[in-house]
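Supplementary notes for students who missed Thursday's class. We covered one full example, reproduced here. Read the sequence, then the structure, then the short commentary at the end.
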Amino acid sequence: MKRFLLILAILIFGCADKPVEQVEPPAKVVQAEPATVVMPETKAEFNETNPAVYETVAYTYIIKPGDWLSTIAMDQLGSVDDWRKIRKWNYSRIESVHLIFPYDELVLHKFAGTGTVYRYVFNDYRVKPGDTLWSIANQVYGDHYAWVVLIRDNMKYLPYGPRRLVINQRLLVRSSL
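Structure (token representation):
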């Protein structure tokens, strides 16, 4: 307690000896011009099979039942070790590398000119009495768990949410997954 009072006294009385300096404001404030930063050019990773191609394009991959990041890397990128790249590209979507879910979407990158553009063909489906997204997914895709694809494709057609379908409501279904 005595030490505390001694330190407090030194701070109070020791600082009182110094006069307070008066600082006058500058006469005119000059606003500086914004700086231009030049970033060095960066290239995509070197592709050993086609060294002339440096530009990559992003595309969406739908996880299939039984997929692992390593099998996706092997099938889509050509190397099992590229699962780390997939994790990096989809860091916010993949909480654990050991836990990925069927029919979720991943963003993958391929070198320009090495991939083909694939567009899904959508068909109309009219909701019947007793239909749920679960039953429609099983009927159309052959897997109940593909209901997440139906939600993703039909968000604007589900005004009451995915739990309430209306008879004769129009839904879009993909011709294949």
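Commentary. Residues 29-47 have pLDDT under 50 and may be disordered. The chain is about 25% helix and 15% strand. If anything here is unclear, bring it to office hours.
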